[in-house]
Amino acid sequence: MGLRFEELDFRNTPMGELVLRRRWYPGVGRDVYEIKLNDEYLMSSLFTVAEEELARLALGELAGKVPAPAGLDVAVAGLGLGCTAQAALADPAVSSLVVVDALGEVIEWHRRGLIDAGVADDPRCRLVQGDFFALVRSGAPLDPAAPERSYDAILVDVDHSPRHLLHPSHADFYEPAGLLRLRARLRPGGVFALWSNDPPEEEFLRSLEQVFGEVRAEVVAFDNPLQERQATNTVYLARNPEGPADTANPEPRP
To answer: Where are the beta strands (DSSP E) in 141-213?
Structure first.
């Protein structure tokens, strides 16, 4: 049995007060790790099913469909407790993974072993500090070590939903022009996947449909032992058409 409550690290960041803590939950009989930014819960190890399904569903879409003799190149936006990255690395088809996170403190927690998800030590994985949304907006590489690389899958788990944002500057990413800029990072037939804490949003699905070929929203159910009920998250999945995006003229599909 661990301590009832332990603060593992506290940092003042440009985005606010960032806290990593470990809490013993008698109802589940184990320690639970939590990340908070100001008053927002960014992630809890008590609820990781949907974050893991984000990777599994996206990579499942690629099984046998994208020729990749050297393996799949994958990008993840949002490191957190490492659950999405860990699930991606569990797929033997993945040959490289870049994880972009705006908070260098979170990356440091993984490298120091305060969060032991195994992603910092995997030779296929690079952890990069950066504002994913700004990188997409500007056309800068997601991984400076591979500036020309495009990706078979890009998985995003940063905001709570396309409408419940951690920062207002993220809003344009979820509009058709922003999604088209993301689509330009994907190889033909590649997959964009997005985690959301909210039910499927028709307005966002319409934006996805303007830009991508195949689009759907998967509702992922999981047990909430604290409230003794079932909870749900959403994973949006969109496939890049078999052709390059025109980033010089970012107009969505008719």
So the answer is: 151-156, 186-196
